[in-house]
Amino acid sequence: MKIAVIGTGYVGLVTGTCLAETGNEVLCIDIDKNKVKQMQEGVVPIYEPHLDVLFERNIKANRLKFSTSLEEGLEHGDIIFLALPTPEDEDGSADLKYILGVADEIGKLIKDYKVIVDKSTVPVGTSDKVKEAISKNAKVDFDVVSNPEFLREGFAVDDFLKPERIVVGSSSDRATKLMEKLYKPYVRSGNPIIVMDEKSAELTKYASNAFLAAKITFMNEIANFCEKVGADVDKVRIGMGTDSRIGKRFLFPGIGYGGSCFPKDVKALHKSGLENNYNFKILDAVINVNARQKLVLIPKIENHFNNNLEGKNIAIWGLAFKPETDDIREAPSLYMIDALLEAGCNITAFDPEAMPNVKRKLGNKIQFADSMYDALKDADALVISTEWSIFRTPDFSKIKSLMASPTIFDGRNLYDVNDVKNEGFKYVSIGR
Ligand code: UDX
């Protein structure tokens, strides 16, 4: 099938590349000329495992192309995916200016029937607004469909190619049939394509992300409480997770959720509630508890150093908001770094992928190390903020020989408490 993807951010790029992978002819459109030029030369602008291989293969096969011309995209595609940014407004709601701006243009440019697909995470009712914006100028028939993505960073290619479910919000049989044809190769395993009205599809995305954010936040509170009463959150987590109604996943406590989706989506749903005369009290609590959780290690560190952090050398392992990504949006590490710098610490950090992004943001406020061990030279404490696999089985005697004092504050519960203590470390983790 012939597809255009408008917007080559994270979602657009993964969508376009993975749609080309099953034989569709995909044209990706972006207004950023440099980025388009780069992509035409085969350079993937983001780090996402496996994406580079698919990208190269499909460009070579002539199924994946790039352009800056929206007009060209609309001529090429029968299905037009909108994967445009929906940044957080000052008041927490999602800003629709990019989506509605493009919708306006689409109305002026389309010459025959198109299915316009909202792929971005958008508030309930956006598909109506997109329809309205296109209708203002359109002289031909078109349909607007809501098709939220459920891609996890670091696993986006796999999530796209083998989705647990595909949600299609559509009130047009013609559009639904096209969407089912497009997605059929991805659900051979028997996973469902769930068709519903547009508003329910839009809400499904927000409800899923907000639920997962609440699940994590609930466990973070249980972990904090475990510390008060001397229970072990790892045991509680396993005890709870074996109940199939609860499930084992997303029960890992830590230093709060971050990233481009959960923080933004929870706030946007809360705001959307208020706009519709509904106060989501549970989301208010999730937002506040998560903000507190990002800094949960700080009082523990202060306590260890008798409230005097001035001049202390702190090593940080992990800057990305989670492993397998270079994304630092809403990363707990940045909140901790701010607090530690404020208190007078010297910070040396290592992250396998995210250091360039942090360097752009913080300049020389902190030092960056070439390896995880280099970060530890003369450190008074190590703080772990991302659970990258390479941090999971370190050489503890090497760590000890490098550090000024063998002290680890682990925001991701990577190690067995007794093992690390037996190695001679002071070890502080979450809820254990
Ligand atoms: C999320 C959703 O999973 C995905 O479906 C949606 O489309 C986009 O948002 P992503 O933000 O890439 O994906 O990351 P995810 O792996 O879901 O983790 C989100 C955050 O929760 C991270 O900060 C992670 O560290 C945290 N987390 C996750 C926990 O603290 N504990 C857990 O048990 C799981």
Automatic annotation (TrEMBL):
Catalytic function, reaction form: UDP-alpha-D-glucose + 2 NAD(+) + H2O = UDP-alpha-D-glucuronate + 2 NADH + 3 H(+)
Top-level taxon of origin: Bacteria
InterPro entries, per database record: 6-PGluconate_DH-like_C_sf, NAD(P)-bd_dom_sf, UDP-Glc/GDP-Man, UDP-Glc/GDP-Man_DH_C, UDP-Glc/GDP-Man_DH_C_sf, UDP-Glc/GDP-Man_DH_dimer, UDP-Glc/GDP-Man_DH_N, UDPglc_DH_bac
Pfam families: UDPG_MGDP_dh, UDPG_MGDP_dh_C, UDPG_MGDP_dh_N
Residue numbers binding NAD(+): D30, K35, T86, T121, E153, K264, R329
UniProtKB keywords: NAD, Oxidoreductase
Active-site residue numbers: C261
UniProt KW Oxidoreductase keyword: yes
Domain UDP-glucose/GDP-mannose dehydrogenase C-terminal, chain residue ranges per copy: 315-417
GO molecular function: NAD binding; UDP-glucose 6-dehydrogenase activity
UniProt-listed GO biological process terms: polysaccharide biosynthetic process; UDP-glucuronate biosynthetic process
EC numbers: 1.1.1.22
Gene3D superfamilies for the chain: Cytochrome c1, transmembrane anchor, C-terminal (1.20.5.100), NAD(P)-binding Rossmann-like Domain (3.40.50.720)
Pathway(s) the chain acts in: Nucleotide-sugar biosynthesis; UDP-alpha-D-glucuronate biosynthesis; UDP-alpha-D-glucuronate from UDP-alpha-D-glucose: step 1/1
NAD as UniProt keyword: yes
Chain sites annotated for binding substrate: F150, L151, R152, E153, K205, F250, L251, F252, P253, G254, G258, K322
UniProt-listed NCBIfam families: NDP-sugDHase
Family affiliation: Belongs to the UDP-glucose/GDP-mannose dehydrogenase family.
Name of the protein in its database record: UDP-glucose 6-dehydrogenase
